[in-house]
Structure formats: structure tokens, C-alpha cells
Design a protein that fits this description.
Number of domains: 2
Number of strands: 12
Strand order of the largest sheet: 3-6-5-4
Structural class: alpha+beta
Helix content: 10-25%
Number of helices: 4
Distance between the termini: 9 Å
């Protein structure tokens, strides 16, 4: 099924030529994400639809309200396959996935600026203890990559590190990148994840291992709220 085209001031928007939305079959164990790679193919099998929505709208984890329906953040709900014959940019593909959710799931959202408690990721007095390189990112012994990435990237931006830190034990609030560092960096980070763990907590680990620090702040954040979303029928 092709989505209707947007014929706005910038001309027709690319659309998916074929879309399949099916309830997750019982007993299926594989989980797949492929966000418009290669070309214009979008796949999510068994992973939370909220992950795809945040990608489509370019949202960090902390920008999504916790009030979203629980089934959006559950595994093994719907499998989605969508593709187009044309080669599209990532920006276009994000808009195409937005349109998919708006049409097939009746998704409606709004944003609101809220001032919240957060952390600023900044440089420690010692300065960064890592340099730009093509190295991988290793955290607590594991090479890190997103489920949608086929291979681990050659380094992270500090903005990506900030988004990761927002959900780490002991932080669990928005983290804003204020390091002023550009480019991608490879690094290794090891920190405590449980009581009794003899590794340093995340605050000490950042300072000792990476030359970074988290500073408590109050800051305005663009938060997004789900106004409506419906469970679709299969096609």
C-alpha cells in the first residue's frame, strides 16, 4: 500500500510503494531493525514501535513522555516492512516513516517546552582523555551498537554519548551535550551497574577515564506527547 503524497511547497514527498503491518506471530524469536538501509527499506520485527517513532521524529529517549501507551514500548507486537523502489535520503525516509505511523496507527503527537532537571555533559578540568579515532566504543566490556546498525560505528559523537548516559543507573534524567567537541570518537568506559560492584560509579568513571563530567542543571527541553495512537488491523 502506498501512502498519499505530500504536495507541499517543496514538491511531492517520497512515499513507500509497499507497506505490510502484521501482528507478531507467536513463537517468533528474531528481532530485526533496519531503518532505511539499504536505500528506502524500513523494517522493524519484534522491537518496540516507540523506538521507530523516536527515530522517525529525531527524538532522544528523554524527549518522549512516559505517558505513551505501554504497548508502544513492548516487544513482539507488530512487524512492519515498508519499501520504495526509489533511493531516498535519511531525512526523507524519516518523513516517510512518520507518515506510515500517522496513517496506519493514527498517530498524533504534540510537543511542549518544559523546564526540567538535567545534566550538562562538559569537559573536566583535565580535558578529554580520548582523541578522535576510528576506534569502536566499548562500554563495560561490550562493543556498543544500536539494534538498527548492522555493524558497530567507528566512534560516537559526544551527543550520542550524552543520550546514552541519560538512561544510565544513577543518572536517569536528560543529559545535554555541552562539550563543544565535534566528530566521532572511539573510547572505552567501565562503570558500576549494581550495588556492591567494585567499579566506579558513572560520575567518577567519566572523570577518571574520559575526562568528562556531569553537572546538574535546569534547562528547557522539547518534550513530545502522544495524543492518539490506535492498534492497526493486519494487511
Amino acid at each position: 500500500m502506498a501512502l498519499a503524497q505530500d504536495t507541499g511547497a517543496n514538491g511531492p514527498q517520497p512515499v513507500f510503494d509497499v507497506i505490510s503491518v502484521k501482528p507478531r506471530a507467536a513463537g517468533r524469536s528474531e528481532r530485526i531493525e533496519s531503518y532505511c538501509a539499504p536505500e528506502g527499506r524500513f523494517i522493524t520485527h519484534g522491537t518496540p514501535l516507540l523506538w521507530s517513532i523516536k527515530w522517525a521524529y529525531g527524538l532522544n529517549d528523554y524527549q518522549m513522555s512516559d505517558a505513551a501507551p505501554a504497548w508502544l514500548n513492548s516487544f513482539d507486537t507488530w512487524d512492519i516492512d515498508a519499501e520504495t523502489e526509489a533511493s531516498v535520503t535519511e531525512a526523507d525516509c524519516r518523513k516517510m516513516v512518520q507518515a506510515l505511523f500517522e496513517e496506519r496507527f493514527s498517530l498524533r503527537m504534540h510537543s511542549q517546552i518544559k523546564t526540567v532537571s538535567a545534566y550538562a555533559l562538559t569537559l573536566a578540568k583535565s580535558g578529554p582523555k580520548f582523541s578522535r579515532s576510528a576506534g569502536k566504543v566499548t562500554i563495560n566490556g561490550a562493543i556498543k551498537k544500536a539494534a538498527s546498525e548492522r555493524e558497530a560505528p567507528s566512534g560516537w559523537t559526544t551527543a550520542r554519548l550524552a543520550n546514552y548516559l541519560a538512561s544510565v543507573r544513577g543518572v536517569q534524567r536528560p543529559v545535554i551535550d555541552r562539550t563543544m567537541l565535534e566528530g566521532a570518537y572511539g573510547f572505552t568506559l567501565t562503570y558500576s551497574i549494581a550495588d556492591g560492584d567494585d567499579r566506579p560509579d558513572i560520575f567518577a568513571a567519566l572523570s577518571q577515564q574520559l575526562g568528562l563530567r556531569l553537572r546538574a542543571i535546569r534547562t528547557p527541553i522539547e518534550m513530545w506527547f502522544v495524543d492518539r495512537v490506535d492498534k492497526p488491523g493486519a494487511n
